[in-house]
């Protein structure tokens, strides 16, 4: 008999792999074959590049934020990679356009997706509308409530949004439900997984579709600032925007790669989404061997973060590899620190970040203070904060149910920022 | 594969059924629902009603191959405080009742305990092997070694979408029986089964002589009878679990329903 274990598939060191029901293996093999051919096919790459240019609005610009840097980052120079300016408002569209084109190449007519913050769902619904595909998006009930605006956006785009009431009712349960749909409908449905985890080939494929972020940013840094940054910072939910910007810098040994995780109410509270700074250990979740928040018996522990997009108990396997190899560092940013960063960037630069991205901004505040004025920091601003206006307004006590005008002005409400959290 | 192995209780149960010119009946229940004691009593009830092999489910937080009924039971079991150790207690109880058993588990709880330790504990409790819904042979090096070391069966799944190449490699890696998914989808009763299952079993038989048991969607005596015409074993899950889930606060009533359904199914595979 042939030894089925002799060829480990899609591993980053020990991490990754393909832990899935047999029913999905054929579809994963088909997907791998198509994406390999596509990534070597000038016609496919040309079509994708043209969509990025004329639909997404790539390349995304770099923005220097001197006022923010001077007041909050110890005077270090801080540069934002503006993925928030992409069509649909986040980096998620990079991956989705690639996978939607692959869906058509495979002759499939329907896409499904999971979503936490709603940005990946919105991007998928957008691509489905553009390319004439049917679209169903699974979203945890808790997330449909805290990201209600994005639910409406998806429905306006013609997608069906299915709230998920199992388990923690957040992102991980939406992923479970998407897999269940996929097993039943895999003959005509492609699962547009929204981040760099899941069974092979997803981690590698999704990274490759986001790699453009780092490719652009590295050239732009050299061009506009004459050197590479000292550190590249990105928030890490599943880890797609971070892998997207990190990857082109991996061989630049002097450039620190720093991922910021959802620190929730603090590591010691146990209510966080910090896979690398908490008690997470390697295990299997959603098809990949990677760090997982789990108990002694292998049951998944629910994560907590003010940010729906970072509220996930596992992380893409390539991050686990980069972390163990010492090539990337990961830090937790608490809800309160992230909201402070949200406020600081908004008020000093007129840029409202997504709460996910605000974790990366908070990382720059920490690192800038550590490194001082000589440092040049590149921050991936993965998305814009429009979807989070309601959450932020409640956090800062800007909404008075009876009289909106009566609410506390933002600058005078430090107490509100200490965060009783988000009460929705 | 290796003819020198000691036969497991599962292999003996399949052989006995074959000797009676019928398919074996495999019944699934998760340990810990509605309580550990209650679930073990339910497994004993099934055995007395004619189930040949008990498939003991280990409840898991993220059961992505399961439909609503088994999800509900798993969530209930976890909320009631079930532990991995309870699966070995259940295996011991079923074995003592005179039936064969396998454990059906997602992979992470096995990894967390340690594959070797899990295998040793299962063998010590009298269990015959594991059914692994999210572990394909390609990723199973540790389990292949541990199951060899402890003479356990390893029951991998094949599906209607499996290529012939994968039917060959998966059956070669399997032992005891191979689990043929009757349809593309998650667990849960279906009103009609379609022809996928018969076609799949036929495809497996062309590449291997390992026993084939068919599961997913089988819920009535009539369906069990149909499947028994072409498979070595008929696996019933959600329909049995429903007996308990539909009577959440009344275990006796749940057990009575379970007894009735299991007897019908046992008659179905003997018709
Ligand atoms: C703006 C934004 N940034 C980051 C994330 C986190 O995902 P990832 O870690 O895959 O980039 C999300 C997810 O919803 C998001 O919407």
From TrEMBL, chain A:
InterPro entries: Trp_synth_b_CS (IPR006653), Trp_synth_beta (IPR006654), Trp_synth_beta/beta-like (IPR023026), TrpB-like_PALP (IPR001926), TrpB-like_PALP_sf (IPR036052). GO terms for cellular component: cytoplasm. It is an enzyme of class 4 (lyase). The beta subunit is responsible for the synthesis of L-tryptophan from indole and L-serine. PANTHER family: TRYPTOPHAN SYNTHASE, TRYPTOPHAN SYNTHASE-RELATED. NCBIfam families: trpB. This is Tryptophan synthase beta chain. It comes from Flexivirga aerilata. The lineage of its organism: Bacteria, Bacillati, Actinomycetota, Actinomycetes, Micrococcales.
Automatic annotation (TrEMBL), chain B:
The active site is at 55 (proton acceptor), 66 (proton acceptor). It catalyses: (1S,2R)-1-C-(indol-3-yl)glycerol 3-phosphate + L-serine = D-glyceraldehyde 3-phosphate + L-tryptophan + H2O. PROSITE patterns: TRP_SYNTHASE_ALPHA (PS00167). It comes from Flexivirga aerilata. GO terms for cellular component: cytosol. The keyword Ribonucleoprotein does not apply. Tetramer of two alpha and two beta chains. This is Tryptophan synthase alpha chain. It comes from the Bacteria. GO terms for molecular function: tryptophan synthase activity. Pfam families: Trp_syntA. Keywords: Amino-acid biosynthesis, Aromatic amino acid biosynthesis, Lyase, Tryptophan biosynthesis. SUPFAM superfamilies: Ribulose-phoshate binding barrel. Belongs to the TrpA family. Gene3D superfamilies: Aldolase class I. Pathway: Amino-acid biosynthesis; L-tryptophan biosynthesis; L-tryptophan from chorismate: step 5/5. The lineage of its organism: Bacteria, Bacillati, Actinomycetota, Actinomycetes, Micrococcales. NCBIfam families: trpA (TIGR00262). Its EC number is 4.2.1.20. HAMAP family: Trp_synth_alpha.
């Amino acid at each position: 008999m042939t030894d089925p274990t002799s060829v480990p598939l899609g591993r980053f060191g020990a991490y990754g792999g393909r832990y899935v029901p047999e029913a999905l293996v054929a579809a994963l093999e088909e997907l791998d074959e198509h994406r390999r051919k596509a990534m070597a096919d000038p016609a496919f790459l040309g079509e994708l590049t043209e969509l990025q240019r004329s639909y997404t609005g790539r390349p995304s610009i770099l923005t220097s934020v001197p006022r923010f840097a001077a007041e909050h980052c110890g005077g270090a120079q801080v540069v934002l990679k503006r993925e928030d300016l992409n069509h649909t408002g986040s980096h998620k569209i990079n991956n989705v356009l690639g996978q939607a084109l692959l869906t058509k190449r495979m002759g499939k007519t329907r896409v499904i997706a999971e979503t936490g913050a709603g940005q990946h769902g919105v991007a998928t619904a957008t691509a489905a509308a553009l390319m004439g595909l049917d679209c169903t998006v699974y979203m945890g009930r808790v997330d449909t409530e805290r990201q209600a605006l994005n639910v409406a956006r998806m429905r306006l785009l013609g997608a069906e949004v299915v709230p998920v009431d199992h388990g923690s009712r957040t992102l991980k349960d939406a992923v479970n439900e998407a897999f269940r749909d996929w097993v039943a409908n895999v003959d005509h449905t492609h699962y547009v997984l929204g981040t760099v985890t899941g069974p092979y080939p997803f981690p590698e494929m999704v990274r490759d579709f986001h790699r453009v972020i780092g490719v652009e940013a590295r050239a732009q840094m050299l061009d506009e600032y004459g050197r590479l940054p000292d550190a590249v910072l990105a928030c890490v939910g599943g880890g797609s925007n971070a892998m997207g910007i990190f990857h082109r810098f991996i061989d630049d040994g002097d450039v620190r790669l720093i991922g910021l995780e959802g620190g929730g109410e603090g590591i010691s509270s146990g209510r966080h989404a910090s896979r690398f700074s908490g008690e997470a250990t390697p295990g299997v979740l959603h098809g990949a061997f990677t760090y997982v928040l789990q108990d002694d018996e292998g049951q998944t522990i629910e994560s907590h973060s003010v940010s729906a997009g970072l509220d996930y108990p596992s992380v893409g396997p390539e991050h686990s590899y980069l972390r163990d190899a010492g090539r990337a560092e990961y830090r937790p940013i608490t809800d309160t620190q992230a909201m402070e960063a949200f406020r600081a960037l908004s008020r000093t630069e007129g840029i409202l970040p997504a709460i996910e991205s605000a974790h990366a901004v908070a990382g720059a505040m920490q690192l800038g203070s550590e490194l001082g004025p000589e440092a040049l920091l590149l921050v991936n601003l993965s998305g814009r904060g429009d979807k989070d206006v309601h959450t932020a307004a409640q956090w800062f006590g800007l909404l008075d149910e009876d009289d909106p005008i009566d609410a506390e002005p933002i600058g005078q409400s430090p107490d509100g920022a200490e965060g009783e959290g988000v009460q929705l | 594969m290796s003819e020198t192995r000691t036969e497991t209780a599962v292999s003996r149960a399949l052989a006995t059924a074959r000797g009676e010119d019928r398919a074996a009946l495999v019944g699934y229940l998760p340990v810990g629902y509605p309580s550990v004691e209650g679930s073990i009593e339910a497994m004993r009830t099934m055995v007395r009603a004619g189930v040949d092999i008990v498939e003991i489910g280990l409840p898991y937080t993220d059961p992505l191959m399961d439909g609503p009924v088994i999800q509900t039971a798993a969530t209930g079991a976890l909320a009631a405080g079930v532990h991995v150790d309870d699966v070995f207690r259940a295996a011991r109880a079923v074995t003592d009742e005179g039936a064969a058993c396998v454990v059906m588990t997602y992979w992470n709880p096995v990894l967390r305990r340690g594959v070797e330790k899990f295998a040793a504990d299962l063998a010590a409790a009298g269990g015959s092997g594991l059914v692994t819904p999210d572990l394909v042979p390609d990723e199973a090096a540790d389990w292949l070694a541990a199951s060899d070391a402890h003479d356990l069966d390893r029951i991998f799944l094949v599906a209607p979408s499996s290529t012939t190449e994968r039917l060959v490699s998966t059956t070669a890696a399997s032992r005891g029986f191979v689990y043929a998914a009757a349809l593309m989808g998650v667990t849960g009763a279906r009103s009609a089964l379609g022809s996928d299952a018969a076609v799949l079993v036929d495809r497996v038989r062309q590449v291997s002589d390992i026993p084939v048991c068919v599961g997913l969607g089988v819920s009535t005596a009539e369906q069990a009878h149909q499947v028994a015409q072409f498979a070595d074993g008929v696996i019933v899950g959600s329909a049995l679990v429903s007996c308990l889930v539909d009577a959440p606060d009344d275990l006796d009533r749940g057990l009575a329903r379970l007894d009735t359904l299991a007897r019908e199914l046992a008659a179905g595979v003997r018709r």
